[in-house]
Amino acid sequence: MELLVGRIIRSSTTRFAVGCQVLRPQVPAFGSLVKVPAVGCDQIYGLIHDVRMEDDPFVRQVAVSDNAPPEAIEDQRQNRQVPIEVGVLVVGYQQDGEIYHRLPPQPPLSLDVLRTCTPEELVTFTERFDYFRLVLDNRDLPADEMLAANLRAAAEARGSGEQSFRLSAGRELARLLAMDLYRLDAILRRIRP
Fold first, then answer.
1. Beta-bridge partners for 92
2. What whole-number distance in Å separates Cα of residue 178 and Cα of residue 88?
3. d(CA 89, CA 42)
4. pTM of the prediction?
């Protein structure tokens, strides 16, 4: 099922940030594949790498209050004044029905709507592993954890083909990280069922 995450508040060709008002149980999940329409292509795909909840003056007051009423806490959670910010790493795009695992020609525009991908879209996007390098090269992000979370979700979306997918992904990771066995081992441990 496709779910609305939020709207673009900042963007570049490599990353963008999305503002959303309330966290729902399913959205956003770390490592999830998401999509946004863009100028020059059908969709831009990315992986969620960060979810940030900034405070506001009311939260600070409630946090230090001895007797914070449960209604006030629940109201703050449901009707936030400061948006929750979701960070997304760009890992590819779709143009004329073809998926490319590289940076798009242009970033998404402000206020474009970001949505989660369906399990079928996740399976289609992860049929090839060319996007691994885009993720692994981002050392300032929790890249290994993000890729592992994405691969676990992609394996689960495949049902009976889960084991075969994990083996193929592991082989590609071994090829890319042959000179960094410690990192390879850590990622392989994280993608195990």
1. 45
2. 27
3. 17
4. 0.88
Query: What are the structure tokens assigned to 83, written together?
Result: 């948006």
* DSSP H/E element including 134: helix 132-136
Average pLDDT of the chain, as a whole number: 90
Q: What is the phi/psi pair of residue 106, to 5°?
A: -145, 155
Percent with pLDDT over 90 in the chain? 69
Question: Tokens 């490592």 correspond to what residue?
Answer: 31
**Which is it for strands 15-20 and 33-38: parallel, antiparallel or unpaired?**
unpaired
Chain-centroid distance of CA 54 in Å reads: 19
Tally of domains in the chain: 1
Domain, as residue range, for 44 = 4-191
Give yes or no for a contact between 183 and 144, defined as CB atoms under 8 angstroms apart: yes
